[in-house]
Structures are given as structure tokens and as C-alpha cells.
Amino acid sequence: MARQADFIAPSILSADFARLGQEVEQVLASGADIVHFDVMDNHYVPNLTIGPLVCEALRKYGITAPIDVHLMVKPVDRIIPDFAAAGASYITFHPEASEHVDRTLQLIRAEGCKAGLVFNPATPLTILEYVLDKVDLILLMSVNPGFGGQHFIPGALDKLRQVRSLIDAAGYNIRLEIDGGVKADNIGAIKAAGADTFVAGSGIFGRPGTDDPNRYDSILAQFRAELAKARL
Ligand code: DX5
Ligand code: ZN
């Protein structure tokens, strides 16, 4: 099966929350494909962020692009219908945070969303063997979850190659996403290792604030140029 088109997924964790609607609108206008929405609960990860109300607010503001909800919460099942109702497109969760991974994946699809599993740097991939037919997206963490602005863990590249082989061998239409420390200088190597969906928070938003509505054009163009050069 042919590789899916590259998706650039800005993580709003590093955006200016006081003017979130505009930030998301502008980064999409600059060429981003989907919105990465990091949900943290100060329990599964040691940080606290945003929930379904903010997702709904982005939809009400007029954001129509897919919203990729990355749940770093435990437990996960209770909150899934709320995110589906709030307009989530993808919902991903960490297998460590669900007592019944298969059931949670089914729940996400039953709520009308695309379902995904997230693997931390030290989480083995074995579980995938049993649920590959129930995932639309596999997200590999290239940092430990909880904070933006960390360095890319190079071991994630080998893991990407492993998962890419699994997906290709199975012939499923599954996206392979990477999250953490993605910048213009490593995105090409990350694509070459097998990713087709690229989350970047500080690499996109983490620059000095300006009122220029086109301020994300150049970084998105740089990402695209590096992706175009990558050898598969
Ligand atoms: C970390 C989050 C990431 C984070 C990435 O737990 O899942 O999505 O925003 O930030 P950067 O791109 O700065 O590493
Ligand atoms: Zn994330």
C-alpha cells in the first residue's frame, strides 16, 4: 500500500493559549494539516492542560481541520465520548492508561472517531499484534510525555522502522505519527524512518511573538522542503 500523504500536526501545547483560536487558524493557513491537541491530567503525566471544552471552543471558532486528541490521562474511557461530542477527529491514548485496550479502541470508533495507540519511548510494541485491525493511527513518542520543548530521543527512529514494517506487512491504512522534539533539522530523517504524521510544538510555535498573521509561513515551508527531500 502506498505511503499516506505527509501530515504536519502543530501541537498547540506551545501556542499562545490566550489567543488560541487565532493561533490555530494562522498555523493552518500557513499549511499545517491537522491540529495536535495534548490533554494532560497531572496523574498519568505530571502536567495539566486542556479538555473537551477547549476542543469544542475551537470548533465553535470555526476550525474545520481534523483535531488529533492525544490523551495523556488515566483512566481514559470516561472522557472519550466527551471529546467525540466536542469535535475530536482522532483520539489516541497510552495503553498503560487503559485497563482494557481493545475495549477502549472499540469505544473510540463507536463514538465516530479514528482510534490510535501511543507508545512511550520505553513501551514495547507487542500489544499491536493483537489490535492492528482496530487502530487508524499509531503514535510513537520521541520524548517522555508531559512537556513540550524536550530533545528527540534517537531510539525512536528504529522503533519507527519497526512499526512501518508492521503496517506495510499487514497492508492496513494506518497512519504513523511521531511526537516530541521534531524540528526542521530532523524531520527528514524521521520521515525516512517511516513516519507520515509529524507533531511539532516548540518547533513551530516556540518563537518570539509577533502580530504578523503570516508568522508561521516560513517554518511550515521549511518543514515541507525537508519532507520533500527525504529519501524513503
Ligand atoms: C508531549 C506532547 C507533545 C509536545 C511536543 O507530551 O505530547 O505533543 O507538545 O512538543 P515539542 O514539539 O516541543 O517536543
Ligand atoms: Zn502530543
Q: What is the SS-derived class?
A: alpha/beta
Could you name the CATH class? Alpha Beta
How much helix, percentage-wise, in residues?
25-40%
The second-level CATH architecture is Alpha-Beta Barrel
What small molecules accompany the polymer chains? D-xylitol-5-phosphate, zinc ion
Cα separation of the termini? 14 Å
What fraction of residues sit in β-strands?
Answer: 15-25%
Largest sheet: 8 strands, parallel
How many structurally independent domains?
A: 1
CATH H-level homologous superfamily name:
Aldolase class I
Tally of extended strands?
8
Poorly predicted residue ranges: none
Indicate the overall shape. Answer: globular
Order of helices and strands: EHEHEHEHEHEHEHEHH
Account of the protein in words:
By secondary structure, this protein is of the alpha/beta class. The protein has one domain: TIM Barrel, CATH 3.20.20.70. The protein is 34% helix and 17% strand. The chain has nine helices and eight strands. The chain has an eight-stranded parallel β-sheet. The chain is globular. The protein binds D-xylitol-5-phosphate and zinc ion (ZN). D-xylitol-5-phosphate (DX5) binds at residues 11, 13-14, 36, 38, 70, 143, 145-146, 148-150, 179-182, 199-203.
